[in-house]
Amino acid sequence: MSILKVARIGHPVLRAAASEVREEVLATPAFQKLIDDMRETMYEYEGVGLAAPQVHEGLRFAVLEVPASDGRAEAEVPFTVLVNPVVTPLGPEKQVGWEGCLSIPDLRGAVPRFTRVRLDALDRDGRPFSVDAQGFFARVIQHECDHLEGGVYLDRMADMRSLSFIKEFEDHVAPAEHEHED
Ligand SMILES: [Zn+2]
């Protein structure tokens, strides 16, 4: 397996709509290796998701995994491959939460997302699956699927003033939020 080079914002691949993955492509060893390499790359950079355009591949698929140790998550999400995903909001409710992106290093921003969504996609073997997701899992799905449309989380921020470097976020924003929770 290989660690892939991650495209950073400013590279046009991140702003282009990706193409459907065709069934005959899905079955190829090259595509299956790309999935494994994306998994390895996501672990290397400690992301919870990675979309194909982020590794310079203009195809509609992404990988995600939320470990139990992630403080933002209500529940662990096992490694999941989303091929040709379709996301449907389940209700109008949105939640504001913090996001970062491997293509926008060192930054965090507060982003409103649908609280509950349905995901319909194919798995890595081309089998259709669907899942109802909420909270942080729903957020990761929406973040990754935006990448397939040429979107990044900055586009979804309601107020750019929350944008912070991670260090300043941890020094100032996160402690202030904990005070509010108490
Ligand atoms: Zn991202």
β-strand percent reads 25-35%
Mean pLDDT: 96
**Cα-to-Cα separation, first versus last residue:** 45 Å
Give a short account of the largest sheet.
Answer: 5 strands, antiparallel
Q: How are the SSEs ordered, and which strands pair?
A:
Layout (H helix, E strand, L loop, with lengths): L22 H4 L2 H16 L4 E3 L9 E6 L10 E13 L4 E8 L2 E11 L1 E7 L5 E7 H14 L15 E2 H16 L1
Antiparallel strand pairs: 1-2, 2-3, 3-6, 4-5, 5-8, 6-7
The structure holds zinc ion.
Can you tell me about this structure?
Strands 1-2-3-6-7 form a five-stranded antiparallel beta sheet, sandwiched between helices. It has a three-stranded antiparallel beta sheet with strand order 4-5-8. The chain has 182 residues and is an alpha+beta fold. The protein has helices spanning 23-26, 29-44, 135-148, 166-181; strands spanning 49-51, 61-66, 77-89, 94-101, 104-114, 116-122, 128-134, 164-165. A hairpin with a 2-residue loop joins strand 4 (94-101) and strand 5.
List descriptors.
182 residues, binds zinc ion, alpha+beta, five-stranded antiparallel beta sheet
Concise structural overview:
This protein has helices spanning 23-26, 29-44, 135-148, 166-181; strands at residues 49-51, 61-66, 77-89, 94-101, 104-114, 116-122, 128-134, 164-165.
